Amino acid sequence: MTQTALFLTAVRRRVRPSRSLPFLVVGLLLALLLLFFVLPVIWLLLAPSKTAGEVVQDNPLSFGSFHQIATAWQHLFAFQDGAMTRWLRNSAIYSGGSLILTLAVSVPAGYALALTKFRGRKTLLVITLVTMIMPQATLVLPIFLELNRFHLIGTIWSVILPFSFYPFGVYLVYIYFGSSLPRDLLSAARIDGCTEWQLFSRIALPLAKPVVGLVAFFSFVGNWNNFFLPYLVLPNSEQFPVQVGLNQLLTSTPSFNPVAGAGLNVTIPELALAIIVAILPVLVLFVFSQRTLVSGMLAGSSKE
User: Fold this and answer.
1) Which of 133, 144, 223, 295 has the most crowded Cβ, counting Cβ within 10 A?
2) Which residues contact 223 (CB under 8 A, 6 or more apart)?
3) How far apart are CA 123 and CA 175, in angstroms?
């Protein structure tokens, strides 16, 4: 090898980008992820195992005792004569009731928008899309005025009915039926004498189970975590869902509200345990529905 070739090889090695740079970037991103997302979750899981003083003074990532977890559990569910139990029950009623109505409305609506032709179909689809991309907070005031007009404020329907209107679910079902449902199958069924209702209930709906499960999951999670609307339309603590109840629990914690009474037995460990209990149903639902969620997300990705 000549000296010129050796020189060019040495130059290429010098200008070649270092392979360690991408690993450093990835490591930095993972460190930031750990710092801002993982560590707070670990702290939240460990906080109920300590007393209020230990939460402030001890190592933030240290474990206290199982006895303290049991004590925090007793204090939490004794708050206001079992308010936490009532809030969880209310959330289950609101989310479950609205979920049933959501599926009863969103699935037929998405099917109709995708596979039937009627006057105003495109206009209705545009309205659905516009409503879907609007922030929910912008709709709270008109929904409140409408509910007040029909004297529904303070009733169970003031939460269930607005939750049942789920434009995102309609759009998901519309995308699935518009891209993945075989048209030849529907044409053959019509030739055999099937009505539109039979096409929907016997052919389209069984094939749409993945996307129906996806809509059900997103609807339930959104309803369970909704705070703003129930906070406005439900004046009584007995009717609060768990998310609004957590706000009341926060205001009853002396560490965050100095005006709160010191004898309520609500401290940071009880508040952390309440947050864990509030998210546990959604977490369990996610764990047991992962396969349905994946198949639902992939449904409609390719045309059959």
Assistant:
1) 223
2) 94, 95, 98, 99, 163
3) 16
Encode pLDDT of 20-32 as tens digits: 667 787 778 878 8
Of 49, 56, 80, 78, nearest in space to 273 by CA: 49
Structure tokens at 185: 């199958």
Token pair, residue 236, equals 């009584």
Run means of pLDDT, 10 residues per run, the chain, 304 residues: 52 52 77 81 90 84 88 89 92 93 91 84 85 82 89 91 87 85 80 82 84 88 90 89 89 70 71 92 83 60 47
Q: What percent of the chain has pLDDT over 70?
A: 85
Residue with tokens 């930095």: 28
Round to whole Å and give the CA distance between 176 and 170.
Answer: 10
- What secondary structure does DSSP assign to 127-143, as a single string? HHHHHHHS-THHHHHHH
Q: Beta strands of 209-283 (E only): which ranges?
A: none
Amino acid (1-letter code) at residue 43: W
> Is the CB of residue 226 less than 8 Å from the CB of residue 243?
yes
pTM, 2 dp: 0.81
